[in-house]
Write a structure and sequence with these properties.
The chain is elongated and about 105 Å long. The protein is 38% helix and 12% strand. Helix 17 packs parallel to helix 19. By secondary structure, the chain is an alpha+beta fold.
Length: 747
Amino acid sequence: MPKNRSGGGLTATQQAAKFLGVAALSGVVLAGLALPAAGVLGLAAKGTVEGFDEIPANLKTPPLSQRTTILDSQGGAIATVYSRDRTVVPLKDISPSMQKAIVAIEDARFYEHGAVDLKGILRAMNRNVQVGGTAQGASTLTQQYVKNVFVEEAGDDPTKVAQATQQTVGRKVQELKYAIQIEEELGKKKILENYLNITFFGQQAYGIEAASHRYFSKPAKDLNLEESALLAGLVQSPSRYDPVNDAEEATKRRNTVLQRMADVGDITQAMADKAQATPIKLKVSKPKNGCITAVKGAGLFCDYVRQVFLTDPAFGKTKEDRAKIWNQGGLTIRTTLDPQSQQGVQDSIKSHVYKTDKVATAVTLVQPGTGKIMGMGQSKPYGLGPNETQYNYSVNKAMGGSNYGFPTGSTFKPFLAAAAIEGGKPPTQMYSAPYEMDYPDTVQTCGKPWVNNAVPKYHLENESESEEGPYALKDAMAKSVNTYFVQMLQDIGMCPVSNMTDKLGVVQGDGTKLPQNPSTLTLGSNGLSPLTMASAYAAFANRGTYCTPIAIESVKTANGDSLSVPKTTCTQAMSQTTADTINTLLRGVIDSGTGREAGLQNRDNAGKTGTTDARKNAWFVGYTPNMSGAVWVGSPSQKVEMENITIGGVYRDKVYGGEVPGPIWRDAMTSALSDRPAPSFVTVDIPDAPKDDEDRDRGRGRDRRDRGDDSNKPGDSPFPGFSLPPDMRGGNNGAKPGQNNGGTTGP
């Protein structure tokens, strides 16, 4: 039968209010609720039935915040994160002794009275009169549940929490009305279930299931009598009766609960006596919250997943909407992280770079064609301790990475080559490529030409004097000849290169577009992230199709509903022929060029080495048809020059991309691809350079080195035509950890 609303007779709520009466609300009820007498007159003045009815009729119960579990691609747990550690369970999964204990100590007449216990109110008022103050309250378990709902809705906002717990007449009357509503709608068992799931039990545990695991390392359904009494006693004051920090007080409180259970007939006196004589036996599980607890070195990947959730519109239109869903929790997030690949990344890092080294390494693996991040790790683990960091060196600043990314050196050259080939340049293209040269007087951009108007002019040179052209593209790529690629840039202009990097998702570490100057678009003088590089090179492996990186495969809510997740977007960045040509060229880098120490056994692979001036950064970015990976080694603050340095227990006179990052890449990829298919590249025929050129170059230089990144003479600007701010001209200058404040000092 429908309930009558205002104007059509009294609702059940109004009838209850009228029954209590203004006098009861302003006198007896309020006395029993332990409110100050000063508040009584205010309520009496406006405490009519009509005023009571003005309170909104429906209590909006927010979903309870719960723990979120982050999984790898195979369903293995990576980490548990939560705003509040809670796992909601049905009443059938809570031991009967726990149900009886909480009712006995908090509201023994729970099953006998309605929303308001008038008998309890009278008892409390009488006791308060006897002591001349507030010694006892009479809030029912239902009213306590309502208060907890207010607290839950307030979240972590201290102002809202204070409002939710304030002892005022208005708040108490509001609790009364909502308690009446709850009693009508839910029934006793559901109220008890909700109460046990929402209540705070101390030690960061919300709800009985979390509390049971925290104190006894068992589910709530397995709690015995003594354990149930202990937890029931915590509700009144979780800090005062905390058994971890004060066993004596906790024991007294537990025994009070046991005696109360005996008094109301839930257990016999003999049972109570025996339980009271039993010492408290805890089996405490420490709180495990946050990405800092992630396994397999996946803490930074875990934090990246969190950043994706909080920033991607797929999870909510506004950042407030997304934060609300994240903090509410109860999610199961299956990620793209492949456990085999992640293990390979971690093992390789530990073998080659120590967390105590002066420099760090970051490694990211991406699957071509899907954009899935398969592995992500670094030598400085996620944390707050010595040699730990909260900066993720693999990603951009907006996702928790370093402020600027890291200069990439010659690993940028394939982007230039791809732009040239896509524009019609043949892979046999030759340039004079002298050992040293001035930058061109002018280079066309997408707008006003860049002009080399410095005095003296910006100048560059190759790594070795033996590197003197003419060269064709194949040899120039294998030997990483700087002057060749600067001449190529002069020939095609900067706009095609800029367009190519846009299609490949290449942006600076701070998220901004790459500036158009020869140093940036030839020799990689600007900072990029390993994830950006791995994803861009994956387009070569995928025959020219670039796919945006993704980290999340699915998200399910606590009730089993699926949320939409960000999808990769794949676009054709270059023709298949262009990509096949780059693959053929970069195979040569590994077969006979600067990346020979990175080569994989028994499968097609390709890649490019890179170092920057003063050897502050060294890179290897490489791929197979089914995996792409980027490895960076360097100083996060750009203060360490990697000469005469020990890395991973091995002394290095000079660090090259092929000699340090290369083997890290090789070992990580070998493990990641173990027992997996070994598809082949589609290659093109690129004729060798004329024999006389080969004869002239044979035996010269040191192909093991990643040539042509230490190319500017002392005093030259790292960004021709671009003035660096003072805090990026070297030195610390107050840089925060992970900040690339040094830039590069060579093109």
